[in-house]
Design goal:
- The structure holds two protein chains of two kinds.
- By secondary structure, chain A is mainly beta.
- Chain A contains no helices and eleven strands.
- Chain A starts with a strand and ends with a strand.
- By secondary structure, chain B is an all-beta fold.
- Chain B is built from no helices and eleven strands.
- Classes of the chains: A mainly beta, B mainly beta.
- Chains A and B meet through strand 4, strand 5, strand 9 and strand 10 of A and strand 4, strand 5, strand 9 and strand 10 of B.
Chain lengths: ~110, ~110
């Protein structure tokens, strides 16, 4: 079963614009991660935010986490055509004992038009 | 430094057959996890291997089994294939002390006809 639900399912923007995608989850977590997947290929790890963190930056990526609302957002600033991909959030639920048993959302498909 | 490699890239089988997928982890990694990703969905955790033993398992039937070898490489076996087993199968490797940071291979696309 999927832990996370992502919103929107699909997003289309122009190059240079910002892209924001959201993830909601159901149970308490140790941490939350965001991954990128190009055209049904393997996933690339983007960023991890721990449950005691509220915001984290990595290059053009900004992730926020609101544990009271059980939600996270991923912001990609100044988007490029190369950012076109599917983006997934993945949670590590409390009680899983840091097993690495990641639970993924259904993903947001981002299209950046040149 | 080779990343996670999976073979084969694509595979076509018929219902009832058996399939074996292979994965070599990133150099230095000792833990391998397998995921199934149906079209348009997020990956779903199948199981995880460490020290040649299955350590965690997701909600998958016993038709799905695996193995880890002393060199940390791993196999995923699926018996009595069903049409619904058609999916992208992803292997991810990690260090046992940092299991959350997983490096994924490009996957094996399995089509069951």
């Amino acid at each position: 079963s999927q832990q996370g639900e992502e919103d929107p399912q699909a997003l289309s923007i122009q190059e240079g614009e910002n892209a924001t995608m959201n993830c909601s989850y159901k149970t308490s977590i140790n941490n939350l991660q965001w991954y990128r997947q190009n055209s049904g290929r393997g996933l690339v790890h983007l960023i991890l935010i721990r449950s005691n963190e509220r915001e984290k930056h990595s290059g053009r990526l900004r992730v926020t986490l609101d544990t009271s609302k059980k939600s996270s957002s991923l912001l990609i600033t100044a988007s490029r055509a190369a950012d076109t991909a599917s983006y997934f959030c993945a949670t590590d639920p409390i009680g899983s004992g840091n097993t690495g048993k990641l639970i993924f959302g259904q993903g947001t498909t981002l299209q950046v038009k040149p | 430094d080779a990343g996670v490699t999976q073979s084969p890239t694509h595979l076509i089988k018929t219902r009832g057959q058996q399939v074996t997928l292979r994965c070599s982890p990133k150099s230095g990694h000792d833990t391998v996890s397998w995921y199934q990703q149906a079209l348009g969905q997020g990956p779903q955790f199948i199981f995880q291997y460490y020290e040649e033993e299955e350590r965690q398992r997701g909600n998958f039937p016993d038709r799905f089994s695996g193995h880890q070898f002393p060199n940390y490489s791993s196999e995923l076996n699926v018996n009595a294939l069903l049409l619904g087993d058609s999916a992208l199968y992803l292997c991810a490797s990690s260090l046992v002390l940092a299991k959350n940071i997983q490096y994924f291979g490009a996957g094996t696309r399995l089509s069951v006809l």
